[in-house]
């Protein structure tokens, strides 16, 4: 399974680069096309297909536990309530949704966006297990674990976020394989078999554990045991306010150094930055980037890939800051294998990113540009 995880993570990284080039090019092309609805419909279809590919690579990275996560304090009840309309549309009128939350807010340590995706996956799995309709119940409880819990989690406070259904259930053999990658009981073309693997990967990366209980003919319960967030963690509401204020930052033309060893991605990032009105120097390696920094004192900001031969993005930023400590940097990566705490002062972009996400990252760091 470790070998499968390493292969899956590596394949997802390569596909992310391809999707980065495709999505970015389509995004710019849409601005250039004439207002021909037939052409725009074809373009939108291509974008939709690429986004589906991106969603698949995110599931692969989640299974391999290499997806990019932003850990923060997530109010579980608030998150579920905010996505209730989406769930109702996704599950349809034959499915009732019930929620059971404590009176006091429960904040867990995880990535809010990925938790939304995980819950939607679990809810859709529950719907598919109830072809004649039924009830999905989402509940939260808090427990103080003592290290002897069936989850094998360490001692501490954990929240149990559960999604239960009244559906067909699973026998012991199926339940034992439920979280295996690419294993699915759905028909051909109706599932990738990565849904539960993705949820398990997210839970593990968050410091928790996924537990599954099911009885044939009596429904299924999936439990996500997640650590309670510490008081000092950024909360989702604070994050949203920070993002909103960053997009209001004053815009000005920047001289940006873009670095990526993949020529397709580099050309795409350069095109997106120039389309935003910036002056771009594009190079294909960390060594050439350092040469540019030494010879061009007017560079305002660095945008670099992480996974590159000879010199990684983080190593490049370290070398750059030895020369110009105040020069801001944005690291673009789909991987999560980065040293703990090293990126506190570095901007982050998860591949594949859109031009809007790039613009927001630039706006956030524009006020720090020299």
Itemize the secondary structure elements and their pairings.
Blueprint lengths: L1 H31 L4 H27 L8 E4 H7 L1 H8 L3 E6 L6 E4 L1 H17 L5 E12 L10 E10 L6 H6 L17 H11 L3 E6 L5 E8 L8 H12 L7 E5 L3 H13 L3 E5 L2 H10 L5 E5 L7 H11 L5 E5 L13 E4 L4 H12 L4
Structure description:
- The protein is α/β, with parallel strands linked by helices and 370 residues long.
- The chain has twelve helices and twelve strands.
- α11 links the parallel β10 and β11.
- α1 packs antiparallel against α2, α1 packs across α9 and α5 runs antiparallel to α7.
- It is globular, with a radius of gyration of 22 Å.
- The chain starts with a helix and ends with a helix.
- About 5% of the residues have low confidence.
DSSP E strands, number? 12
Strand arrangement, major sheet: 2-4-5-7-6
- Order of SSEs, N→C? HHEHHEEHEEHHEEHEHEHEHEEH
Mean pLDDT: 80
């Amino acid at each position: 399974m470790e070998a499968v995880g390493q292969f899956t993570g590596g394949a997802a990284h390569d596909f992310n680069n391809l999707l980065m080039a495709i999505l970015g090019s389509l995004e710019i092309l849409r601005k250039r096309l004439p207002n021909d609805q037939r052409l725009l419909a074809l373009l939108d279809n291509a974008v939709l297909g690429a986004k589906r590919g991106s969603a698949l690579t995110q599931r692969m990275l989640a299974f391999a536990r290499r997806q990019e996560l932003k850990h923060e304090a997530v109010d579980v009840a608030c998150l579920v309530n905010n996505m209730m309309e989406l769930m109702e549309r996704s599950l349809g009128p034959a499915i009732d949704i019930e929620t059971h939350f404590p009176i006091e807010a429960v904040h867990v340590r995880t990535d809010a966006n990925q938790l939304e995706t995980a819950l939607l996956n679990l809810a859709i799995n529950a719907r598919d297990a109830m072809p004649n309709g039924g009830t999905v119940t989402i509940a939260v409880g808090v427990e103080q674990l003592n290290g002897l819990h069936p989850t094998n989690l360490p001692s501490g406070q954990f929240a149990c976020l559960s999604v239960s259904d009244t559906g067909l259930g699973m026998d012991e053999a199926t339940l034992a394989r439920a979280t295996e990658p690419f294993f699915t009981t759905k028909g051909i073309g109706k599932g990738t078999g990565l849904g539960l693997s993705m949820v398990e990967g997210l839970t593990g990366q968050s410091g928790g554990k996924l537990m599954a209980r099911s009885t044939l003919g009596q429904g299924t319960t999936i439990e996500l045991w997640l650590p309670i967030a510490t008081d000092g963690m950024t909360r989702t509401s604070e994050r949203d306010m920070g993002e909103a204020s960053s997009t209001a930052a004053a815009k000005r033309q920047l001289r940006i150094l873009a670095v990526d060893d993949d020529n397709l991605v580099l050309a795409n990032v350069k095109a997106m930055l120039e389309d935003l009105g910036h002056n771009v120097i594009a190079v294909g390696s960390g060594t050439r980037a350092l040469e540019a920094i030494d010879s061009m004192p007017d560079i305002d900001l660095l945008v670099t890939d992480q996974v590159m031969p000879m010199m990684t993005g983080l190593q490049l930023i370290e070398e750059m800051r030895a020369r110009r400590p105040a020069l801001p940097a944005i690291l673009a990566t789909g991987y999560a294998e980065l040293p703990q705490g090293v990126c506190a002062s570095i901007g982050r972009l998860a591949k594949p990113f859109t031009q809007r996400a790039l613009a927001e990252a630039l706006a956030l760091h524009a006020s720090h540009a020299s």
